[in-house]
Amino acid sequence: MKERIVKSSLSLFWRYGIKSVTMDDIAKELGISKRTIYQHFKDKNEIVETVISEELCKQTCEFEELEAKAVNPIDEMVHISAHIRESLCNMNPALLYDLKKYHPEGFQLFSQFKQSMVLQSVKDNLLKGQEEGFYRRDINVEILSRLRVEQIEMAFDPTIFPFGQYTMVDVQLQFLNHFVRGILTPKGFNYYNIVEKTAIEPNTHEK
């Protein structure tokens, strides 16, 4: 039952954001009473923390699989970004905003994930790209890896990209294209122009 509650809560949060989803909504979605939910979770905040923790674990595994399958650093970055866009295309943009404003413990989990797993992954990618001749040797890996990580969260900020005026998919696509093209060598450009057409262009109309 606990697993069912987490799965249904994630689905509701993904569609409607966190703030607008009540314990009654979760109970109705599952066809159970609120009392049953409270037998497994003390409050909504605990549900949110559990949902975020499990989703981040899932994302970590999926990122590691994509990294293992990638033929080179450009391929890795493009396909991980495509995976992120696919994950975000049906997500309510208010989710991260709600998490940050109303559930600081859950947001702390996201921040730790971003500053550890994601940041290290980007650093490793940039260093491998330099070693293999795809990325310029004169880029500052420490600075640009932090820039790339912050871009991901920036797309969720309604004060910068108002909901309804921009989609996260479009914003993330522009961020990736701008970022990658700024670090490529001529060898990198040749490869990126090929992989971009197969991994990016088909998704440009995703909403």
Task: Produce a short descriptive summary.
Helix content is about 70%, strand content about 0%.
Describe the structure.
The protein has 207 residues and is mainly alpha-helical. The protein has one domain (44-203): Tetracycline Repressor, domain 2, CATH 1.10.357. The chain has ten helices and no strands. α6 crosses α7. The longest helix has 28 residues, at 104-131. Residues 201-207 have low confidence and may be disordered.
Question: How are the SSEs ordered, and which strands pair?
Answer:
Blueprint (H helix, E strand, L loop, with lengths): L1 H15 L6 H8 L3 H5 L5 H26 L3 H16 L5 H9 L1 H28 L9 H14 L13 H14 L4 H14 L8
Helix pairs in contact: 1-2, 1-4, 4-5, 4-7, 5-7, 5-9, 5-10, 6-7, 7-8
* Helix run count: 10
Rg on CA atoms, Å: 19 Å
Overall number of structural domains:
1
Main sheet attributes: strand count, strand direction, barrel closure: none
Structural class: mainly alpha
- What is the helix fraction of residues, given as a range? over 70%
On the 0 to 100 scale, the average pLDDT is 90
Note poorly predicted spans.
201-207
Looking at CATH, which topology would you report? Tetracycline Repressor, domain 2
Strand portion, in percent? under 5%
Based on CA inertia axes, which overall geometry fits? elongated
CATH class: Mainly Alpha
List SSEs in N-to-C order: HHHHHHHHHH
Gap from first CA to last CA: 33 Å
By DSSP, the count of extended strands is: 0
Query: In CATH, what is the homologous superfamily?
Result: Tetracycline Repressor, domain 2
**Any guess at the CATH architecture?**
Orthogonal Bundle
